[in-house]
Each structure stands twice: as structure tokens, then as C-alpha cells.
Specification:
The protein is mostly helical. The protein has one domain. It contains ten helices and three strands; from the N terminus they run ααβββαααααααα. It has a three-stranded antiparallel β-sheet. The longest helix has 24 residues. The N and C termini lie close together (11 Å).
């Protein structure tokens, strides 16, 4: 076959990773090698060896990204969870493949996209911060969520509140602005990859006819 699926084999393989958890050799993209000791075990992603140390560092980094996404969504109740224990093995394997594709495809969000995503992230956390500050850091998520929704639509960027939200021990984010924004942009790169893969995987009626006729 020389149709869409042959020409976009790697795109389709990556798309499959968006839909199912990787099962090592099942995707053809990931292999796992265990040698004499766990310290020398490694994964192979698209022909590149990933040591256990590298894997652990990536798991820690990805966990922080997933944790921050949760904080944006559910505020204080997300920030109290362990930020470095969010990513599963499958999550990390998918992330490694995604990052390989991001590098291969040269994906980098525009400055405008970065600015917009960072702005939205700041408004998410500062709104939660104001809600919890006003409530004295009490109440349940169902009790505080309506307050968040009503305030989020009216939220405006405030650098002072932004800094307080990141540093206040009650909120438990404890990040610099630089670290916060880099974590948000890292997540944005994966979102851009997902969009590009899904867009590339749209099969026209003509291509489908040629593929299966």
C-alpha cells in the first residue's frame, strides 16, 4: 500500500499511543531491556536508550506537570497531593515517545500560544488562591467550586497575587514564576503534538477509497 496509512505510518503509530497505553514491543516504538541488575535496566525509545536514572528523572518531571494540571483544575485539593508521584510507568513511556516526536517534528508553540496558555494557568491558580484565602482555607471542593467558577470568568492578571499564590505555604505550590511557566509550556508542547497528529491523521474520502479499493 502506498496510500495515507503507508505515508503516515509513524503518525498513525503515535496516534495509537494517544488512545492506548503502551505495551512495550506491541507498538514497535518501545522496547524494554533488563540486564543483570535493575540498576542497568533500560528502555529503548525509537532506537535511543533511556536509562533507569533518565527514566526516573522524566517520571519526576512529568509528575510535576500532571500535578500542576490538577492544581489548575481543582486548586488546593490538587496541590495537597504528592507532586512527584502522579505519573505511571505508561505515562512516562508515552511522554518519552511524545518528546521524541516533538523533537523530530520541530514542534514549538508560538510565543502567542505560550503567552496565552501561561496567562490562563496564572488565572486558574490565582482564582483558586483568592477563593481559599477568602474562605480561610476551609471548606470542601464542592463548597468552594461554585465560588471558583463565578470568580474565574471575571479574573484579571495580578502579578502580586500571582507571586503570593506560588509562594504561600497554605497553597503548597511553592514554585518560582520561571518554574511554573516552564512547566505550563512543557505541557503545551504535548498538546501541540496531539493536535498536529490528529490533524495529520484525518483521512479524506478519496484516500480511504484508494487505500481499501
Amino acid at each position: 500500500s502506498t496510500g495515507f496509512f503507508k505515508r503516515n505510518e509513524r503518525v498513525v503509530m503515535t496516534l495509537l499511543l494517544l488512545l492506548i497505553a503502551p505495551t512495550f514491543a506491541a507498538t514497535g516504538l518501545i522496547s524494554w531491556w533488563a540486564r543483570n541488575a535493575s540498576a542497568t535496566a533500560s528502555y529503548e525509545i525509537n532506537g535511543e536508550t533511556v536509562t533507569i536514572q533518565d527514566f526516573s528523572e522524566k517520571r519526576r518531571e512529568l509528575s510535576k506537570t500532571l500535578w500542576l494540571t490538577k492544581v489548575r483544575r481543582i486548586g488546593w485539593w490538587g496541590s495537597r497531593q504528592d507532586r512527584y508521584r502522579q505519573a505511571t510507568v505508561d505515562d512516562v513511556l508515552k511522554q518519552l515517545v511524545f518528546e521524541d516526536e516533538i523533537t523530530r517534528m520541530g514542534i514549538e508553540p508560538s510565543d502567542q500560544s505560550k503567552d496565552q496558555e501561561v496567562r490562563e494557568a496564572i488565572l486558574d491558580v490565582t482564582t483558586w488562591y483568592r477563593v481559599m484565602e477568602n474562605a480561610g482555607w476551609t471548606g470542601t471542593y464542592p463548597e468552594r467550586y461554585p465560588d471558583y467558577i463565578s470568580q474565574r470568568s471575571l479574573a484579571r492578571l495580578d502579578q502580586s497575587t500571582y507571586g503570593a499564590a506560588l509562594s504561600d505555604p497554605n497553597f503548597k505550590i511553592q514554585m518560582s514564576k520561571k518554574e511554573f511557566e516552564e512547566t505550563v509550556i512543557s505541557s503545551l508542547r504535548v498538546q501541540e503534538l496531539v493536535r498536529s497528529v490528529v490533524d495529520a491523521a484525518v483521512v479524506t474520502e478519496k484516500e480511504a477509497f484508494e487505500e481499501f479499493s
